[in-house]
């Protein structure tokens, strides 16, 4: 389910506080999720109304901070991790997104956004790195086609990177009640 299904394709979501929580409540309570093991809520970066409203009104087992390794993105990642700690949401770890680009022709690897920014931040915050997601054209193409790489190319290195991160997250979450 996506907030994008609830608004016009070109309409921006310019909601604050109560409007955000109303929409989140509808997504949580009025969508037939079926039997779930986990529910993942993907939020924008930062420490605004969305993050605060969700963390204060919904029981959260853990947060995962995802960032590119560039300095400007790391500022938001750090603030996000600190905010979750402040509202007593466990931070399960960090993911370094767009960590490396490998040329499809010559296989040369380039760290377009920097090499170890998220790793350095994890050390500073005393958190673990859950994994790295490469900057790869197949990830974009498969997502754009509605067939994410973990479904359309499950044996690819990109899919394995996502699956490794998912396993690390599950390993850190409390065991769900039976």
From TrEMBL:
GO terms for molecular function: 4 iron, 4 sulfur cluster binding; ATP binding; ATP-dependent FeS chaperone activity; metal ion binding. InterPro entries: Mrp-like_CS, Mrp/NBP35_ATP-bd, NUBPL-like, P-loop_NTPase, YlxH/NBP35. GO terms for cellular component: mitochondrion. SUPFAM superfamilies: P-loop containing nucleoside triphosphate hydrolases. Keywords: 4Fe-4S, ATP-binding, Iron, Iron-sulfur, Metal-binding, Nucleotide-binding. One of its GO terms (biological process) is iron-sulfur cluster assembly. It comes from the Eukaryota. Belongs to the Mrp/NBP35 ATP-binding proteins family. This is Nucleotide binding protein like. It comes from Buteo japonicus.
